[in-house]
Amino acid sequence: MSVHKTAHDILQDPDFKKLSGQKDTISIVLTIMELLLYFGFIALIAFNKPYLAQKLSEGGATTIGIPIAIGTIIVSWILTGIYVRWANKKYDTLVKRVRNKIGG
Amino acid sequence: MHETIIGQVNAISIIFFLLFVLATLGITYWAAKRTRTTKEFYAAGRSITGFQNGLALAGDYMSAASFLGIAGLVSTKGYDGLIYSVGWLVGWPILTFLIAEPLRNLGKYTFADVVAFRLSQRPVRAAAASGSLITVLFYLIAQMVGAGTLIKLMFGLPYESALVIVGVLMIAYVIFGGMLATTWVQIIKAVLLLGGATVLVIMTLYQFGFSYGELFSQAAKTYGDKFLEPGGLVTSPVDAFSLGLALMFGTAGLPHILMRFYTVPDAKEARKSVFYATGFIGYFYILTVTIGFGAAILVGQKLITGIDAGGNMAAPLLAEVLGGSMFLGFLAAVAFATILAVVAGLTLAGASALSHDLFVGVIRRGVANEKDEVKVAKMATLGLGVAAILLGILFKGQNVAFMVGLAFAVACSANFPALLLSILWRKFTTAGAATSIYTGLSLAVILIFLSPTVWVDIVHKDEKAAVTTQVKTLEDGIKAKIAELEKIKSADAAKAAAVDADMAAAKTKAEAEIKEAKSKMPQPIFPLKNPAIISMLAAFLVGILVSLMRPEKSAEQKFEDEKLRTYVGIGAE
Questions:
Q1: Nearest CA of chain A to the CA of B144: how many Å?
Q2: Which value does ipTM take for this structure?
């Protein structure tokens, strides 16, 4: 059996389809979330400065904009964490299963 | 106002710096024995763990310019500096979701390996190497000019000597120790920088009873509520969006960052390393912002901008106020180390584009023995290092801030689209890849040249200054005239009506004159400061259209092998 045909066969395998489908979905969804997060932040700055300038508490000086900016950094990191956690648990198991099929 | 010893030869910082140099040269000596094959030279024998690579990625990315520059920007502009810092992190999740693992599975040493995976090697490698080299060169010039200026500010060392020291050390690390030494220089630097900044933040927060609320209310008390609100940074939404695109997708096209993913054993470690890196870098920006606000209050804007108008000395000054000359010396040495780690990474990435992609891939048509390739890579390192020193001297005193923006624009326009399409799209062709890269590259460079940042602020600097002065003179003139007329009016009520008429006439005349003067203001030919929105989209469009016009059967046939390798890692090196 040629290498090309093997690759073709594996690509039709339900396990591989599940693996690539899930990975594509989670990658695209998380990418869109990150885009919305950052460009949402930029849009707020561009179109609604007064919102970001509001004080967090009566008498305090901290504006809502500060936790939103820091939050953008932290949420970005959490999104990468979600991806890595998913990949370490689910994706690697599927990869192992497909690899075993090829080996066996 | 307190005194500062910044800018004087400081024994403590020199001792710290010498310790760093000794340690890193020791590591280079150790690494030299493990740097013989191409795999060792370019990829540290793939022996780096995910955690180590996370630190090294952070050390590769966190530049002295971003540490000192962002702290300075926050201390002088407040919230706007914070907005700016957020943009530098948001590319990392994109890199995680779309690029890191396929890159590791498909490539060997450079991102061109991935683009050329199933396409014709020579044209694709030539194009990808051009994109890499231009990105690396602009980034390197900006770093070198920044290094010379910062070291002069901090140590009082002449600009040229600083460049030679930086250049010689980075050449030594890369030539003798290859990727292994570069990695450990970056890891040590990351630990020192994160550690130093953490200590500085703890000392700062101690002054405010460990309360951010207290820190911000003191900041608002001194500089007004406006200091904690968005100001003038984002004026044009389109411009902000375009810059955002460059930062988000440019990170995923920076050759020196992409190259680091080949130093780990497999895709799983690559994925882990980018998660650690994002955490370290995000944490670092949060620290830097805190340092900026702390410096504004505890050092004061007057002293900060008195020493450097750009505010670059905010963090060292704060260290001096809180920890004396000892801590200042330590932090100055860390900034020096930071510069070294970044330029070493850049030089290595540039050298591998020259040796692995151009020499072996294009000139030798993919056939070269290990020894030759390593030799050429070392020669390329030497050449690039010397070029970096000379270019740094050539651009002395020039405004090079735009060059980092340009590097990101080229990375997101030339490198990223071709990389992403080659991973995802079955129908991508050799012609599509090459034209996409050249389109993105040339558009990014040309449009930046015609943009307000270069065309107005650099090329027509003198005209701009002349118009600005003329407008100011006219404005001052009319103000003086009005004040004079007001005086006459209040002295003699009878003349009020006549004076009012005079005043109105003078105002109209002055307005016309100012308008006339302003019309001579040099205009940019391209309106946006960052071209990404045009150049990146054009690169995608050209890549897709050219590929659709002339399909490439052999490339399409190899896609299934590539796909299997992308997702499962079969055959990955």
A1: 28
A2: 0.93
